[in-house]
């Protein structure tokens, strides 16, 4: 069986399971083999029953003494009980609602049981343990545990992967052979075998090292290819512009950090090489103003600017803000979004092509086909983490040589950013505008919802506005009808019901652009007291009259995302609040939410997310616009990252476009990692 065979052709994988895999992005056998275990359960060293620690996952080996048939409990649950034990103690095993494991047990035989031991010192028990036979343990002493998701259990994934390993032809080696010796790495096929079914922890570790190298190496190759495309081009030629008139036109004074960042950016724009700079600043640090200063400089030099924002709401808001900031200097702002009427779009496109728009603000539409700039000199990408490298590249590609400024609220340590973004320079806004008050943050359970709505009612009565966020659908992604139904139901049955007589609005990604704009306009103008919304409002929205942010199912978000959402309030003079609602029982979840309640420091929050949830969430696709890494951690695998960085540079030196026949398989992996990014 070839590696590119769809998973449903594997024995034991039906269309239903294949569909679940598809939701995880697993289409082929090769994809499936790239679904790595999170950890292993070591069956090779079982604890004596009497010595098994309480309440931690443990493996014990015990003989079965007796079995009882399934009994039906009041309430419809079934229960099966088995008595077992070893020389040290007896063990009572109970399964609820499943009898398959118990059915397979033979009285008098020994088995391995994995689970939590509870009970007393003399009477030990386990509930719903996983059972493995000595033969199974002999074959795979370290059982892989996969992240269970999309309705796929770890055991089910393990079975499918094992099948794939047996039936698939060995995958082609992608690394140059001398890399294997230089970095002491196992071959690719061996590594895949060992990551899924290691004979020892050492084998698993070696396999991981190899696969981490692969990921980081292909990542660096892809970034290298993207970069070399831009390097050859010269920049739009600009003279320094005096920012004095711009600063003094503002109703407030810029912070020192804003002045410094604007200075660095405008300095770059007057160099011969194109600017390639990242502006990093916590939520509310005033990045828009810095972007405006850059646009001002480009305008004074006779160049057009483009600003790309991730949502239509944000694009509309930016267009308005930038018009206010720059209109008096003669800057003509055009808005370009996907949802525009054909006629309006034609007018905008004509103005852009004729150079009658000095600044074009929009969503992806800005990089769409048919958008022709007369003289694009500056491209700004807001909330950079929401865009992929691909979009960034496309925007830069709209002109031969624009300066590029990307802005992000996600703090990434500097050394890491250099490796990840390559030759991107970095400016940091490490100072908030004066007068910001801390946002009081609380985590509550769903049983407090009624009381919470009482509080919302009081805030509204005092003339304030509130946001209520329900998890869901993103504007640009595949939209899930079930979730849409959930937010609509919440809107009518919870929010409207608990705020009788108040004006409650509903915002979600399915609304037409015009409807979204109307809802947002109503909220901004104070014609709505509360706005029930999906995360389409996550980034950048600025409504100073809003003082409360409620986030339902808060456990579903990473802390950085919650912090972004929280940043929507606390923008005016009044005291602001953020209420995180979650019924999730997990201790980890509680701890995370409590942590968020204790701090407003975006950097500390990102760090906590990194340490506690792992890189998958923090450095997930959405966060930095890079491809998702399965295994590698950009924070702990830094040595491998450095090695991969150097090796990629070396390889590209010899084969700049990665077209040599011996690099074909490697080029294929780079394409796979970057999805449909085009490199030329
Ligand atoms: P972010 O960095 O999150 O994009 P914004 O650019 O949206 O932040 O700015 C947040 C708010 O702070 C806006 O209402 C903006 O007008 C205001 N603001 C920005 N700079 C200053 C400043 N120097 N003094 C006072 N308010 C400022
Ligand atoms: Mg912003």
TrEMBL record:
Q: Which UniProt keywords apply?
A: ATP-binding, DNA damage, DNA recombination, DNA repair, DNA-binding, Helicase, Hydrolase, Isomerase, Nucleotide-binding
Q: Which PROSITE patterns match?
A: HELICASE_ATP_BIND_1, HELICASE_CTER
Domain of life (superkingdom): Bacteria
Pfam families named among the record's database cross-references? DEAD (PF00270), Helicase_C (PF00271), RecG_dom3_C (PF19833), RecG_wedge (PF17191)
Q: Which residues form the Helicase ATP-binding domain?
A: 268-429
InterPro entries this protein is in? ATP-dep_DNA_helicase_RecG, DEAD/DEAH_box_helicase_dom, Helicase_ATP-bd, Helicase_C-like, NA-bd_OB-fold, P-loop_NTPase, RecG/Mfd, RecG_dom3_C
What molecular functions are annotated in GO for this chain? 3'-5' DNA helicase activity; ATP binding; DNA binding; hydrolase activity
The record's EC number reads 5.6.2.4
Chain segments annotated as coiled-coil in the UniProt record: none
What CDD domains has UniProt attached to this entry? DEXHc_RecG, RecG_wedge_OBF
Q: Which GO terms describe its biological process?
A: DNA recombination; DNA repair
Q: Which residues form the Helicase C-terminal domain?
A: 448-611
Top enzyme class of this protein?
isomerase
Q: What does this protein do?
A: Plays a critical role in recombination and DNA repair. Helps process Holliday junction intermediates to mature products by catalyzing branch migration. Has replication fork regression activity, unwinds stalled or blocked replication forks to make a HJ that can be resolved. Has a DNA unwinding activity characteristic of a DNA helicase with 3'-5' polarity.
NCBIfam families of this UniProt entry? PRK10917.1-3 (NF008165), PRK10917.2-2 (NF008168), recG (TIGR00643)
Indicate what this protein is called per its UniProt record.
Answer: ATP-dependent DNA helicase RecG
Q: Which organism is it from?
A: Candidatus Allofournierella merdipullorum
């Amino acid at each position: 069986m070839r590696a590119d065979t769809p998973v449903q052709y594997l024995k034991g994988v039906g269309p239903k399971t294949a569909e679940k895999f598809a939701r995880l992005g697993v289409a082929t056998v090769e994809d499936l083999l790239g679904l790595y275990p999170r950890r292993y359960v070591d069956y090779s060293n079982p604890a004596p029953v009497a010595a098994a620690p309480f309440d931690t996952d443990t493996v014990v080996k015990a003989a079965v003494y007796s079995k009882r048939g399934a009994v039906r409990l009041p309430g419809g649950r079934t229960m099966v009980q088995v008595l077992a034990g070893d020389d040290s103690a007896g063990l009572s095993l109970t399964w609820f609602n499943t009898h398959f494991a118990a059915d397979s047990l033979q009285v008098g035989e020994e088995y391995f049981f994995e689970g939590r031991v509870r009970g007393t010192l003399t009477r030990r028990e386990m509930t719903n343990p996983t059972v493995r036979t000595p033969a199974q343990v002999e074959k795979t002493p370290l059982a892989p545990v996969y992240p269970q998701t999309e309705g796929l259990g770890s055991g089910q994934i393990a079975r499918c992967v094992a099948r794939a390993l047996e039936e698939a032809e060995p995958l082609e080696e992608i690394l140059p052979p001398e890399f294997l010796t230089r970095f002491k790495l196992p071959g690719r096929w061996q590594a895949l075998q060992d990551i899924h079914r290691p004979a020892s922890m050492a084998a698993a570790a070696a396999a991981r090292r190899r696969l981490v190298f692969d990921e980081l190496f292909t990542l660096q190759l892809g970034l290298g290819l993207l970069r070399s495309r831009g390097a050859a081009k010269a920049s739009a030629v600009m003279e320094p512009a005096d920012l004095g008139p711009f600063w003094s036109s503002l109703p407030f004074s810029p912070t020192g950090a804003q002045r410094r960042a604007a200075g660095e950016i405008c300095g770059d724009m007057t160099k011969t090489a194109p600017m390639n700079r990242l502006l990093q600043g916590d939520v509310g640090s005033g990045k828009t103003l810095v972007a405006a200063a850059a646009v001002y400089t480009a305008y004074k030099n006779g160049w057009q600017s483009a600003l790309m924002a991730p949502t239509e709401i944000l694009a509309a808001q930016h267009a308005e803000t930038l018009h206010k900031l720059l209109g008096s200097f003669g800057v003509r702002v055009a808005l370009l979004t996907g949802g525009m009427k054909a006629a309006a779009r034609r007018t905008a496109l004509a103005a852009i092509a004729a150079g009658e728009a000095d600044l074009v603000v929009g969503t992806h539409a800005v990089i769409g086909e048919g958008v022709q700039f007369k003289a694009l000199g500056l491209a700004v990408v807001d909330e950079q983490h929401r865009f992929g490298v691909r979009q960034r590249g496309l925007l830069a590609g709209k002109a031969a040589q624009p300066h590029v400024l990307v802005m992000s609220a996600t703090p990434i340590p500097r050394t890491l950013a250099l490796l990840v973004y390559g030759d991107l320079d970095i400016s940091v806004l490490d100072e908030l505008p004066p007068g910001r008050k801390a946002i009081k943050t609380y985590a509550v359970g769903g049983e407090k919802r009624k009381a919470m709505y009482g509080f919302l009612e009081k805030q509204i009565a005092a003339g304030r506005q509130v946001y209520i966020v329900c998890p869901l659908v993103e504007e640009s992604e595949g939209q899930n009808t079930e979730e849409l139904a959930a937010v609509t139901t919440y809107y009518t049955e919870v929010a409207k019901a608990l705020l009788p007589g108040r004006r409650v609005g509903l915002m979600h990604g399915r609304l037409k652009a015009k409807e979204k704009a109307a809802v947002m306009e109503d909220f901004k103008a104070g014609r709505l007291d509360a706005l029930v919304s999906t995360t389409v409002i996550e980034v950048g929205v600025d409504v100073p009259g809003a003082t409360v942010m409620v986030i339902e199912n808060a456990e579903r978000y990473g802390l950085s995302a919650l912090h972004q959402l929280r940043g929507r309030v606390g923008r005016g003079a009044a005291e602001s609040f953020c209420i995180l609602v979650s019924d999730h029982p997990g201790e980890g979840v509680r701890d995370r939410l409590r942590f968020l309640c204790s701090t407003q420091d975006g950097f500390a929050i990102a760090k906590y997310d990194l340490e506690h949830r792992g890189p998958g969430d923090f450095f997930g696709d959405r966060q930095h616009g890079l491809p998702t890494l399965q295994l590698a951690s950009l924070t702990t695998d830094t040595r491998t990252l450095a090695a991969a960085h150097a090796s990629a540079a070396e390889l590209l030196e010899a084969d700049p476009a990665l077209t040599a026949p011996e690099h074909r398989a490697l080029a294929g992996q780079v394409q796979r990692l970057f999805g449909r990014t085009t490199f030329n």
